[in-house]
Design a protein that fits this description.
Elements (H helix, E strand, L loop, with lengths): L1 E3 L3 E4 L6 H8 L2 H4 L11 H9 L7 E7 L6 E11 L2 E8 L8 H16 L4 E7 L3 H9 L3 E10 L4 E11 L9 E3 L1
Antiparallel strand pairs: 1-2, 1-9, 2-3, 3-4, 4-5, 6-8, 7-8
Helix pairs in contact: 1-3
């Protein structure tokens, strides 16, 4: 699945992305805000993830920013099936934060979930010590449903997180380009 927004391209990761993916994600302040990312994160971890065949009911994309001279891998975004529901998750490399990329990529992924995957709702969660992620989810229309403890591999412990949900209602045509 591919999507193009004014400043971003969302596409599947390719094996040759392993060095850029490792450089973008291998920061403890990224890893500790994700539930399943190991720490330390190595190029071997990136190669393993990039070579993994995604399940039929999930979409995993790298986020490329193309508002500079050259496209740059700045993050990742996915819709996965976990615990009986589809869930959106995302991350950005530290120097790409604060530019609206997560919200822009999130809108594109919501379009993919709604129009390409045919989903009617999505769940999300964010660790409570990551309020910026909560702000992004609020901008995307997610509503808080509660709190739970979630294990973080990088932290090696459970941490409190907010749970959220979004109904994907039929709307107008997507405001980005998308291709399977």
């Amino acid at each position: 699945m591919f999507a193009r927004t004014p400043r971003l391209t969302l596409r599947p990761g390719w094996p040759e992305d392993a060095p850029a993916l490792t450089q973008a994600i291998a920061h403890y302040d990224v890893a500790c805000m994700l539930s399943r990312l190991p720490w330390p994160y190595t190029q071997a971890d990136a190669e393993a993830w990039l070579s993994r065949q995604p399940d039929a009911d999930e979409v995993n994309c790298v986020i490329l920013a193309h508002d500079g001279a050259y496209p740059e891998l700045v993050g990742g975004i996915s819709v996965i099936f976990r615990d009986g529901d589809h869930e959106i998750g995302y991350w950005l490399t530290p120097n790409a934060r604060g530019r609206g990329y997560a919200t822009e990529a999130g809108h594109a992924m919501l379009g993919i979930a709604r129009y390409a995957m045919g989903l009617k709702r999505l769940r999300a969660s964010h660790f409570l010590d990551n309020p910026a992620s909560g702000n992004v989810l609020a901008k995307l229309g997610f509503r808080r449903t509660g709190e739970k403890l979630l294990h973080s591999v990088a932290r090696g412990a459970e941490a409190p997180c907010a749970t959220l949900e979004l109904a994907l209602e039929a709307g107008t045509a997507a405001d980005f380009r998308m291709a399977a």
